[in-house]
Write a structure and sequence with these properties.
About 20% of the residues lie in helices and about 35% in strands. The protein is α+β, with helices and mostly antiparallel strands.
Length: about 110
């Protein structure tokens, strides 16, 4: 099993959610997060004063999937979510030792 963490633009979340659903991903954890990277934030004006915003709002989606689905998910996310501009986000892939469904006690791939 693998954990795929996708951090992307907030406006791409609906596209990402539909994509994951179409790929058969049944569950996900979604968080609104802030971060910085190559995008380096932006300059805004508040009450006539210039304010440097160094953290950008992003959406973070975590899914746990079978090893066999990882490459397909990554390829499809890149294909449908990328804009080609700085700030598109990142995908992180981590190994998961085990999963347990609390309600039934199922373990491993059957629990996801």
């Amino acid at each position: 099993m693998k954990k795929i963490t996708i951090i992307t633009r907030q406006e791409k979340f609906e596209v990402l959610k539909k994509l994951l659903n179409d790929l058969g991903i049944k569950g996900m954890t979604v968080s609104n997060v802030m971060g910085c990277g190559n995008q380096k934030g932006s300059t805004e004006f508040y009450r006539g004063t210039e304010v440097r915003v160094s953290l950008i709002n992003k959406t973070k989606v975590d899914v746990i999937v079978s090893d066999s689905l990882v490459d397909q998910i990554v390829d499809e996310v890149i294909k449908h979510v990328a804009t080609g501009k700085v700030g598109d986000g990142k995908i992180f892939i981590s190994a998961i030792e085990n999963a347990v469904r609390i309600r039934t006690g199922e373990k491993g791939d059957t629990a996801i």
